[in-house]
Design brief:
The complex is a heterodimer. Chain A is mainly α. Chain A has helices spanning 2-9, 17-27, 38-53, 58-74, 83-90, 124-189, 210-233, 249-255, 259-269, 273-280, 283-298, and strands at 300-301, 306-307. A two-stranded antiparallel ribbon of chain A has the order 1-2. In chain A, helix 6 (124-189) crosses helix 7 and helix 7 crosses helix 10 (273-280). Chain A is elongated. Chain B is α/β, with parallel strands linked by helices. Helix content of chain B is 44%, strand content 15%. Chain B has 30 helices and 21 strands. The radius of gyration of chain B is 29 Å and the shape is globular. The termini of chain B are far apart. The model of chain B is unreliable at 1-29 and 31-65 (pLDDT under 50). The chains are: A mainly alpha, B alpha/beta. Chains A and B meet through helix 1, helix 2, helix 3, helix 4 and helix 5 of A and helix 13, strand 14, strand 15, helix 17 and helix 19 of B. Chain A: This is G-patch domain-containing protein.
Chain lengths: 325, 777
């Protein structure tokens, strides 16, 4: 015990020396009842001394201090039993404020203690708090905004996909109608034999109306890929465009390397700014343009799925999908 | 009580009016107007029940009864009459010929703003018992109003005095000196002052400046303040603890003594509160001599108010026209530091930017008076003919706010903080904390810039912060103090019902509760709240109850001489000097006196060494060499003398243990416990921290302590609240003493379970066993 060390070092305290001896004897009886092995005991002692010896960090101490202070400051003493309170009661204190009766607004609680820990100017803390609050509010708004944005984005994606598929369907309708029209014209002109050829388009892509050129191009790309795969499978490990110097014209004709395919492939590889520009448009707009085209050219309403007999298109509710709801 | 008031308040003035009316009418024919007979008339009329004649003769000491005041009738005089009397040629109060200096001062006095309203003041003063007087700083109220009162109240006709209270000792002393000069009398004769431990008055004294605390002490022995015919409470707006108690007391005394005149003087316009408190007493306001002050706010709150303050001061010096600067900061260390930095920066500005010379003066309460006087030195002249004008900067605490008037200030820099006393009964800490000032204080500070000519005030906060963050008025001291001493005083003043005592701002009930509890543990009050013999004795000492009780019980511990010295040492400011430039050397010197058991014993060693022949040979040199404050030691010596006198009158023995006795220091430590058993802390089993007994506050020993050994239990003199909780001036004690000397406080059934209770329980068991063994033998 430190205080005893102190005493023995100071001759003026030997009056108390007897106590130390007493104290030592008395401290022992608190030994545990169950028998401990030497190792257990040693370990326990070690643990205990570690726990005791651990010096709290400055921050921990400061926090403890502040916490103890806050606890004490927030608790009214009037609730506890207290000699002072008993004396006040004898003077007629019945709770409430002190002073004469007509003294309104006298203090009930002591003035709080506010510790200033830095050199911040007046209003800095409030300003900091205000900024912090604003930051939090802004953050909250941003999160909310993001949530809204996400929903909006998903909605738009779905809508676009839907419109895209509608557009695909419209393109097919337009291509078919265009084909039928050409056929009709051909029949009129007596060119029946060409009808069969129509299945494989021989038209250069650029001559096809841009409104549904994408569809044709897609199909042709697919067709090309299919053929390339097929060629590979056939172990004719050559690109269709491969110009074998050993083959002469006859060979080529025999192998079916016709000019048509050639142009097709070249056609596909060629840049098509018109189509690119059209595809870059919003699907809704593309669809709108196509729908208009179908109406003008074929008196066909994409939404009614009906070809009207005349330009008036009597009976069709309107231009847009909503009109047909 | 309350319903009796109005009649009481009205009666005396109406009576007095009637008599004065009669007198005025009668004066035209009445032979009593005969100047040779007037003194008889005077005495017979005004003081019929007293044997005024002999009094008067006694006063005038057999000299010619004719003075400039012989024609004056109490409470009927006019400003004109006083004017004539003041013009001499002889002093109206002692008939001595008046000096040239007197007439010079008289001229300047008559230019003061209050002078214009002298008649108005007299009219109101004569009509009412209690008058509220509002005069801004610089109106001359503190020096002039008491003199106006003298000429009308004529206290010497009745062997009475006029008292004028001041919140501060320094003010009481300096104002008394000033007024003595103005009246061409010797300080201590007609005009004197009385402050704690110093009384400069004599049998001739008719005007006494005193601290409010001193008047309160006098009231303890003379509940009706019968010595005084008029009491002037000056600087009432400062709302010191003593002023508040005095106001409560005077409110009651005014009922018992209708002849007593009371003037409440305040510097702020919050006077309605005083009027209301004194049952709608009439108010007289005198404008100060002030110029407009332009106020500037910062656009953003400041990150570091000290840094911002320095920047602002230097900026003013660089850009603003001639005029001195007053900067408000919070404490000694901050002020000294700021002074150093401003001087350094200013030197650079002079070298590099051809700025004018700049002198910087610190100003704070603990500064020696000679150094405080330096703030009145004029600003330095330009460095060379035609150069830019010099300037002085005063960096001060809020004592520069109201109490000191410094002319020439044109710029005020106000960071908005001051060190304020706080007390919270819940953790029983009384400490000085840096806190935001009030709006009223801020206005007061700004006003300082407009004393000589239009000025500017730079507030280092935003206008919004001024409006929203600052409270209207500073909390009166009574709400921020431990009231143990006050309660003892009130008890001695004969006020038994402390709960309903009519204070202007009653404190929180818990504050009173704590004070009563403390006094009960100190055995100054019994369980009914009545004064005990010890309490009566303790109230004789102008000390905190704990100190007084320690002193009174010290003979039981055979060391009253030593405890007397220690009490004196604890009542004066810091003994040890530790300049920033020589901290190490100062610490080495302190170590020479150190006692391993604590700071109290170390202080005692210092005092004993100071009284030794070596030190007394050249005290100044000795103190300087040992880094001690001569001023503090001398005033401790003085306080010791005063306390010794009180001990002797109360027959408290002065004894000592032989220095070579092994119990010499033990006895002193035990005597310490007798007073400070409520300020004890026990060491935490882990770490350096201590925990205060009963309040469970974690505290650290202040770094200044000399306590060398690890002490389990300590008593402390002071709990200092800073960013850390510190206890300062500590001495180690033994738990047995606590249980033995203060068994009521250390009644273990009142303790919360915990480490401290366990430790005390162990000690108690030990004592019991020891006793059992002794009995067994």
């Amino acid at each position: 015990m430190p205080s005893q060390d102190l005493n023995s070092s100071n001759p003026s305290h030997d009056e108390e020396d007897g106590d130390d001896y007493m104290n030592m004897v008395i401290a022992e009886p608190s030994a545990p009842k169950e028998k401990e092995t030497y190792t257990q005991r040693r370990l326990r002692k070690q643990r205990e001394s570690e726990a005791k010896g651990r010096v709290k960090s400055k921050a921990e101490r400061a926090a403890d201090e502040a916490a103890a202070r806050e606890v004490a400051l927030s608790k009214s003493l009037l609730d506890s039993e207290n000699k002072g309170l008993a004396m006040m009661a004898k003077m007629g204190f019945k709770g409430g404020a002190l002073g004469s009766k007509n003294n309104i607004g006298a203090r009930l609680d002591p003035i709080g203690i506010n510790m200033k820990e830095d050199r911040g100017g007046i209003g800095l803390d409030t300003e900091k708090k205000r900024k912090f609050r604003e930051e939090v509010e802004k953050e909250g708004k941003r999160v909310k905004a993001e949530e809204g944005e996400y929903r909006e984005r998903v909605r738009k994606e779905r809508e676009d996909a839907r419109l895209e598929s509608l557009f695909g369907a419209a393109m097919r309708v337009a291509e078919r109608m265009d084909g039928e029209k050409e056929e009709e014209e051909a029949i009129k002109n007596g060119q029946v034999d060409e009808i069969t050829k129509r299945t494989i388009s021989t038209k250069p892509l650029k001559q096809i109306n841009v409104l549904w050129r994408g569809l044709v191009r897609q199909r042709e790309e697919k067709e090309r890929d299919r053929r390339m795969r097929y060629d590979l499978h056939q172990s004719l490990s050559r690109l269709p465009t491969y110009d074998d110097p050993d083959e002469d014209k006859e060979d080529k004709k025999a192998l079916g390397k016709d000019k048509i395919q050639h142009t097709l492939v070249e056609d596909l590889e060629e840049e098509d700014p018109e189509l690119d520009a059209f595809i870059a448009l919003d699907p809704a707009e593309r669809l709108h343009k196509l729908v208009l085209h179908l109406r003008e050219e074929y008196n066909y309403c994409f939404w009614c799925k009906f070809t009207y007999p005349d330009k008036e298109m009597d009976g069709c509710p309107g231009l847009t999908e909503e009109d047909h709801d | 009580m309350a319903d009796r008031r109005p009649d009481q308040a009205e009666m005396p003035p109406s009576k007095r009016l009637k008599t004065s009316d009669v007198k005025v009418k009668a004066s035209t024919l009445d032979p009593t107007t005969n100047p040779y007979l007037s003194h008889r008339y005077e005495i017979a009329d005004i003081d019929p029940e007293n044997s005024g004649f002999s009094n008067r003769n006694g006063y005038s000491n057999g000299n010619s009864a004719r003075t400039g005041l012989s024609d004056f009738k109490r409470h009927t005089t006019t400003a004109k009459q006083a004017h004539v009397a003041e013009d001499g040629p002889n002093n109206p109060f002692n008939n001595a010929p008046l000096s040239n200096q007197y007439f010079n001062i008289l001229e300047t006095r008559r230019e003061l703003p209050v002078h214009k309203q002298r008649q108005e003041f007299l009219d109101m003063f004569q009509k009412t018992q209690i008058l509220v007087f509002v005069g801004e700083t610089g109106s001359g109220k503190t020096t002039q109003i008491p003199q106006f009162v003298l000429f009308d109240d004529l206290p010497h006709f009745n062997r009475k005095l006029v008292a004028c209270t001041q919140p501060r000792r320094v003010a009481a002393m300096s104002v008394a000196q000033r007024v003595a000069n103005e009246m061409d009398v010797k300080l201590g004769e007609e005009v004197g002052y009385s402050i704690r431990f110093e009384d400069v008055t004599g049998p001739k004294t008719i005007l006494k400046y005193m601290t409010d605390g001193m008047l309160l002490r006098e009231a303890m022995h003379d509940h009706n303040l019968t010595r005084y015919s008029c009491i002037i409470l000056d600087e009432a707006h400062e709302r010191t603890l003593s002023t508040d108690i005095l106001m409560g007391l005077l409110k009651e005394v005014a009922i018992r003594r209708p002849d007593l005149k009371i003037v409440i003087m305040s510097a702020t316009l919050d006077a309605q509160k005083f009027q209301r408190y004194f049952n709608d007493a009439p108010l007289l306001a005198v404008p100060g001599r002030t110029h407009p002050v332009e106020i500037f706010y910062t656009p953003e709150p400041e990150r570091d108010y000290v840094e911002a303050a320095l920047r602002t001061v230097l900026q003013i010096h660089a850009t603003e026209p001639e005029g001195d600067i007053l900067l408000f900061l919070t404490g000694e260390e901050e002020i000294e530091d700021a002074c150093r930095k401003i001087s350094m920066e200013a030197d650079e500005m002079i070298r590099e930017a051809d700025a004018g010379p700049l002198k910087v003066y610190p100003l704070y309460g603990t500064l020696p008076p000679q150094q405080q006087q330096r703030i009145f030195e004029p600003a330095p002249p330009p460095a060379r003919a035609g150069g830019r004008p010099g300037r002085k900067v005063i960096v001060g605490t809020n004592i520069a706010e109201t109490s000191l008037t410094i002319d020439g200030i044109v710029y005020v820099v106000d960071p908005g903080f001051s060190k304020q006393k706080v007390y919270n009964p819940r953790i029983r800490v009384e400490s000085l904390l840096v806190s935001p000032i009030s709006k009223a204080s801020a206005q007061q500070r700004a006003g300082r810039a407009g004393r000589t000519r239009p000025g500017k005030c730079f507030r280092l906060y935003t206008e919004a912060a001024f409006k929203k963050e600052l409270i209207e008025q500073t909390h009166p001291e009574i709400l921020r103090s431990n009231l143990a001493n006050t309660v003892l005083e009130l008890k001695k003043l004969g006020i038994d019902d402390l709960v309903h005592f009519d204070l202007m701002d009653p404190p929180a009930p818990e504050t009173l509760m704590r004070a009563l509890e403390e006094l009960n543990y100190l055995a100054c009050l019994d369980d009914d709240g009545d004064l005990t013999t010890l309490g009566k004795l303790a109230s004789e000492f102008p000390l905190d109850p704990a100190l007084a009780v320690m002193l009174i019980s010290s003979p039981e511990f055979f060391c009253s001489n030593e405890i007397l010295s220690l009490t004196a040492l604890l009542s004066v400011p810091q003994l040890f000097v530790r300049p920033a430039s020589a901290k190490k050397r100062a610490d080495e010197m302190k170590a020479l006196f150190a006692h391993p058991d604590g700071d109290h014993l170390t202080m005692l060693n210092v005092y004993h060494a100071f009284k030794g022949p070596e030190a007394q040979a050249d005290p100044k040199r000795w103190c300087h060499d040992h880094f001690l404050s001569l001023r503090a030691l001398q005033s401790a010596d003085n306080v010791r003398q005063q306390l010794k006198r009180i001990m002797e009158t109360n027959e408290i023995d002065l004894v000592s243990t032989d220095f070579n006795d092994k119990d010499y220091y033990t006895n002193i430590r035990r005597a310490l416990v007798a007073g400070f058993f409520m300020q004890v802390a026990k060491k935490d089993p882990a770490g350096k921290a201590y925990k205060t007994v009963k309040d469970d506050q974690n505290v650290l020993l202040h770094p200044s302590t000399v306590l060398g050994v690890e002490s389990e239990w300590i008593v402390y003199n002071e709990f200092v609240l800073t960013t850390k909780n510190y206890v300062r001036t500590v001495t180690s004690v033994r738990p047995e003493w606590l249980l033995d000397i203060a068994p009521n406080y250390y009644d273990l059934s009142t303790f919360k379970a915990g480490e401290i209770k366990t430790a005390l329980q162990r000690t108690l068991d030990k004592i019991k066993r020891k006793q059992a063994i002794k009995r067994g033998r």
